[in-house]
Design a protein that fits this description.
By secondary structure, the chain is an alpha+beta fold. It is built from three helices and five strands. It has a five-stranded antiparallel β-sheet with strand order 1-2-3-5-4. The model has no long low-confidence stretch (mean pLDDT about 95). The structure holds adenosine monophosphate (AMP) and zinc ion.
Length: about 120
C-alpha cells in the first residue's frame, strides 16, 4: 500500500481523525493539521499526483474541480465577503512538504501581501 499520507487520508485509509469538509469519487477536503489561518482546508485528489509539475492535459478537469470545491467551501465558510487565498506549493522552492498535490484554502484573517511572502 502507498506510504503517502494524503493518499491515505483522501481515501479514508488512515486512522487519522481528520475533519472532512467534502468528498466525492475524485476529491477529499479536510482540515490542515497545522492551520495557518482560522480556516485552512486542504483540497486533495484521491489519485496520487506528486506535484503540479507532474500534471498533464488529462488532469485539467480534476484541477478545475478542485478549484470549484475550494470556491464552494469558501462560500460555505462565509469567506466570500472578505476573501481568501488558494495556494499550490510546488517542490522545494515553493515550500511543498507533502508530495501529493493539494490546494490550500486559507481565510478568516487578513493574509500578507504576496511581496511580503
Ligand atoms: P505543503 O507545504 O504545501 O506541502 O503543505 C502540506 C500541508 O499539509 C501543511 O500545511 C501541513 O500542516 C499539512 N499536513 C501534514 N500532515 C497532515 C495530516 N496528517 N493531516 C492534515 N494536514 C497535514
Ligand atoms: Zn499520494
Amino acid at each position: 500500500m502507498s506510504e503517502c499520507i494524503f493518499c491515505k487520508i483522501a481515501n479514508r485509509l488512515s486512522g487519522s481523525d481528520a475533519e472532512y469538509h467534502f468528498e466525492d469519487d475524485q476529491i477529499s477536503a479536510f482540515d490542515d493539521i497545522n492551520p495557518q489561518a482560522p480556516i485552512h482546508i486542504l483540497i486533495v485528489p484521491k489519485r496520487h499526483i506528486p506535484t503540479i509539475a507532474d500534471i498533464v492535459d488529462s488532469d485539467t478537469e480534476l484541477l478545475g474541480r478542485m478549484v470549484r470545491v475550494a470556491s464552494e467551501l469558501a462560500k460555505s465558510h462565509h469567506l466570500n465577503e472578505n476573501g481568501y487565498r488558494l495556494v499550490f506549493n510546488v517542490k522545494d522552492h515553493g515550500g511543498q512538504v507533502v508530495d501529493h498535490i493539494h490546494l490550500h484554502l486559507l481565510g478568516g484573517r487578513q493574509l500578507g501581501k504576496m511581496n511580503n511572502n
